[in-house]
């Protein structure tokens, strides 16, 4: 495996672009391939068996295109399928988990909120994580319909603002001082979230930590691309491409392709 081979990323749609941006910012010399399984979004409402099956299908696609490692840029896929992926494939995997630890370590009110999908909040991995913080008041909230609205490009809609208000107001009333975004789609809603919650509440997502872990794993495996050749970034989706192009912006939006997948 050459260090010039691309990093692969997949998500149940466009949300993982929030992770891709952090990875690209930290590792600008790495080639990347992003796969958006928007046709099957959201994963959060699917069974564990379906999530594993779809995740393996996505990984097969990325490996066929020469990816040297895969970032599972989806909280639900990570919490439900990362164990099976690591057991089935001989490449490094980076998973995405809600950033509970930094919130738990820094909270002053001992109350943190977690906005995530049903699939993430119900997973065994998530329950193992929060078991370490039984002294805290951890408010779990499923972000019903948020992923689908983001996939439709409705980031500024009144519907999404009303849903966010419904989900966040009880957390604010409970005196949370940290809000953990447990879905890679949700960072695209940070401007709307900031209009609802007080300024003192800190918002945490996993993007920066994932980028740093990606760099560490590449270095450990001798796969960090030290070449300064022009990089290539390819984006594939099996549904409408307009939202993906909008979130990427120029010049990367020119590299989006619709595939039958």
What does this structure look like?
The protein has 261 residues and is α/β, with parallel strands linked by helices. Helix content is 41%, strand content 17%. It has a six-stranded parallel beta sheet with strand order 4-3-1-2-9-10, with helices on both faces. The protein has a four-stranded parallel beta sheet with strand order 6-5-7-8, with helices on both faces. α1 crosses α10 and α2 (48-64) packs across α3 (75-88). The model has no long low-confidence stretch (mean pLDDT 95).
Q: Give me the count of strands.
A: 10
Average residue pLDDT: 95
Largest sheet, spatial ordering of strands: 4-3-1-2-9-10
Shape: globular
Helix and strand pattern: EHEHEHEHEHHEHHEHEHEHE
| Radius of gyration computed on alpha carbons | 18 Å
Counting helices, strands and paired strands, the structural category is alpha/beta
Helix coverage percent: 40-55%
| Largest sheet report | 6 strands, parallel
Low-confidence segments, ≥5 residues, pLDDT <50? none
The helix count comes to 11
Beta-sheet strand percentage?
Answer: 15-25%
Distance N to C terminus: 25 Å
Keywords:
single chain, 261 residues, alpha/beta, six-stranded parallel β-sheet, four-stranded parallel β-sheet, 11 helices, globular
SSE map:
Layout: E1 7-11, H1 17-26, E2 32-36, H2 48-64, E3 69-72, H3 75-88, E4 93-94, H4 100-106, E5 111-116, H5 118-121, H6 124-130, E6 137-142, H7 146-151, H8 158-173, E7 178-182, H9 190-194, E8 202-204, H10 207-220, E9 233-237, H11 242-248, E10 256-258
Parallel strand pairs: 1-2, 1-3, 2-9, 3-4, 5-6, 5-7, 7-8, 9-10
Helix pairs in contact: 1-10, 2-3
């Amino acid at each position: 495996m050459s260090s010039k081979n691309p990093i692969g990323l997949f998500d149940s749609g466009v949300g993982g672009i929030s992770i891709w941006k952090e990875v690209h910012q930290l590792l600008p010399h790495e080639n990347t391939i992003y796969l958006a399984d928007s046709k099957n979004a959201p994963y959060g409402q699917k069974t564990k068996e379906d999530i594993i099956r779809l995740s393996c299908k996505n990984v097969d696609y990325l490996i066929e295109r020469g990816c040297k490692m895969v970032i599972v840029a989806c909280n639900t896929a990570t919490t439900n399928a990362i164990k099976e992926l690591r057991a089935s494939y001989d490449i490094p995997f980076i998973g995405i988990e809600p950033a509970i630890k930094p919130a738990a370590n820094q909270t002053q009110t001992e109350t943190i909120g977690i906005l995530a999908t049903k699939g993430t909040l119900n997973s065994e991995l998530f329950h193992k994580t929060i078991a370490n913080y039984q002294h805290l008041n951890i408010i779990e909230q499923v972000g019903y319909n948020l992923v689908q609205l983001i996939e439709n490009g409705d980031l500024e809609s009144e519907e999404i603002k009303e849903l966010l208000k419904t989900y966040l107001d009880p957390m604010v009333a409970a005196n949370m001082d940290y809000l953990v975004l447990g879905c890679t789609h949700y960072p695209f809603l940070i401007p709307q979230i900031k209009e609802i919650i007080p300024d003192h509440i800190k918002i945490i997502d996993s993007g920066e930590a994932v980028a740093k872990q990606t760099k560490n794993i590449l270095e450990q495996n001798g796969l960090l691309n030290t070449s300064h050749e022009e990089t290539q970034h390819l984006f594939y989706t099996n549904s409408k491409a307009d939202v993906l192009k909008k979130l990427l912006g120029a010049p990367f939006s020119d590299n989006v392709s619709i595939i039958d997948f």
